[in-house]
Design the sequence.
């Protein structure tokens, strides 16, 4: 339902009327009207590739629409770039962070609006304001840390602080909770409610229906670039929203039979990894096993060593002396990444841009990144591009990877969720004995999450071992056969999902409880 567009004294702080945005091969936004009331939290919901981020990028001046108009406080405005958006009080936290890796957190926050006197930078004042904002909103960011050395969760908080630092009144949150822990999400929800009470207006893109039901006042649903409807959250349900989004009923529970673990596939033996940011070890003397036909989940608050643990297992970081990694009985502690891949290790990485994709390669090139040298795709050293194309089309169809130009689409131009689906397709389709999946459903819609969960369970049932790292406690409880909780670089508890609760896991994740070597509570 489109809202009244001819109201002279507009009740809306932002009106996007009949917006159409076209990319090569795809109409990303097809005649969409969205109206944001003053002081409301307005959710934007839709499948991966539905056009949500594109619509918000139009509002923020990153894209220019082919058709349509934007009004602020009832007056027509032209937003040519993000500087125009900021001048109008519009700020955006992007799904894929716009940060300079070699700069500090503080430098990233003030970039573009550096406080200065006669050309001399006044960093002291800026640092004080950033620390105050960080404390007031519970973001707890170190302003002097380099972005390349902080976790994805901390990068997300830096993006939020960038927006708060600029005193924006219209706040766009593009998947802000995708990398946050349950506790951090709860805090962010409170922050958003507080900002709305202060009179700020929030546009909130999320796939997480629980969050939308908790924090939003209204929700606009898009499907395949088209407007489906706007509903009051108080008058709808999760099930109704999911059906509006994907056009069918979605199962929220994971169907899986009890596990029947077989032979040991991965053994982590006294693994220690040094931290890049502080003196304590990021991973400290960790040991565990993963067997055929089971899903072992590493649960924990972001930044407690999960990233470094996975990097050491997959070969992205070198462990300290005395550490050992065994894969199918073979010591692979110092083997190369390619050796581990060729031996049957698949890896869905935490950072899909840094470690998952070559963004300026095409989709089909990304889908054979780890296999282009195999006989299936090359002959006498020359890549057989016809075979690569056929394989890519099979994966695109099987995993519903949506892209404007199919296999030749640049990975950079795809939506975040479809980039993630491409990585999942590549890693699950090749033969693997071990799947290391780090936040595999990050940024995916409920329909895609249901599909990915089914594929991970199918991988387990086919005899693969699965090491899952997730910040989503619902995912941890639904998907795991065993749960290992990490806190400050150590395994502090081991559980079976049927024998624990989310609340108990939360205590271990926060360091309030710890098991001894014998599994007793301490």
Sequence:
């Amino acid at each position: 339902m489109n809202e009244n567009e001819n109201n002279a004294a507009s009740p809306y702080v932002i009106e996007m009327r009949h917006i159409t945005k076209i990319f090569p091969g795809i109409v990303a936004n097809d005649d969409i009207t969205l109206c944001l009331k003053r002081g409301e939290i307005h959710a934007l919901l839709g499948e991966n590739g539905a056009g949500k981020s594109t619509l918000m990028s139009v509002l923020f001046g990153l894209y220019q629409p082919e058709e349509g108009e934007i009004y602020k406080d009832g007056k027509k405005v032209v937003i040519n770039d993000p500087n125009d958006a900021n001048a109008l009080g519009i700020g955006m936290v992007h799904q894929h962070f716009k940060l300079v890796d070699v700069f500090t957190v503080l430098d990233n926050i003030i970039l573009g609006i550096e406080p200065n006197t006669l050309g001399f930078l006044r960093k002291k004042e800026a640092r004080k304001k950033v620390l105050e904002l960080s404390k007031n909103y519970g973001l707890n960011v170190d302003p002097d840390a380099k972005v390349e050395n902080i976790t994805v969760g901390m990068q997300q908080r830096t993006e939020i602080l960038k927006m708060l630092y600029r005193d924006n009144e219209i706040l766009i949150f593009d998947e802000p909770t995708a990398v946050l822990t349950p506790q951090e999400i709860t805090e962010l929800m409170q922050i958003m409610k507080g900002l709305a009470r202060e009179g700020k207006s929030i546009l909130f893109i999320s796939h997480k229906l629980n969050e939308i039901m908790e924090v939003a006042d209204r929700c606009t649903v898009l499907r395949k670039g088209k407007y489906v409807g706007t509903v009051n959250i108080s008058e709808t349900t999760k099930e109704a929203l999911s059906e509006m989004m994907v056009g069918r009923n979605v199962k929220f529970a994971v169907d899986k039979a009890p596990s029947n673990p077989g032979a040991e596939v991965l053994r982590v033996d006294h693994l220690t990894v040094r931290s890049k940011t502080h003196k304590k070890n990021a991973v400290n003397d960790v040991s565990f096993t993963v067997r055929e036909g089971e899903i072992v989940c590493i649960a924990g608050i972001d930044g407690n060593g999960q990233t470094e643990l996975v990097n050491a297992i997959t070969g992205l970081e070198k462990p300290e002396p005395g550490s050992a990694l065994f894969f199918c009985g073979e010591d692979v502690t110092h083997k190369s990444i390619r050796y581990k891949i060729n031996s049957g290790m698949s890896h869905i990485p935490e950072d899909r841009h840094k470690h998952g994709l070559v963004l300026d390669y095409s989709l089909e090139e990304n889908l054979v990144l780890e296999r282009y040298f195999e006989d299936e795709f090359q002959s006498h050293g020359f890549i057989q591009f016809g075979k690569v194309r056929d394989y890519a089309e099979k994966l695109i169809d099987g995993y519903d990877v949506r892209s404007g130009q199919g296999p030749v689409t640049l990975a950079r131009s795809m939506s975040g969720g479809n980039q993630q689906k491409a990585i999942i397709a590549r890693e699950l389709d090749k033969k693997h004995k071990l799947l290391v999946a780090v936040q595999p459903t990050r940024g995916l819609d409920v329909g895609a999450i249901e599909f990915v969960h089914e594929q991970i369970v199918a991988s387990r049932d086919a005899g693969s071992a699965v090491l899952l790292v997730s910040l989503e406690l619902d995912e941890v409880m639904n998907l795991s056969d065993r749960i290992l909780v990490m806190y400050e670089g150590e395994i502090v508890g081991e559980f079976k999902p049927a024998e624990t609760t989310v609340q108990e896991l939360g205590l271990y994740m926060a360091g309030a409880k710890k098991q001894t070597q014998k599994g007793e509570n301490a």
User: Anything to note?
Assistant: Residues 105 and 390 are 44 Å apart (CA to CA). The chain has two domains: 12-246, 251-344+435-516. The domain at 12-246 is CATH 3.40.50.300 (Rossmann fold).
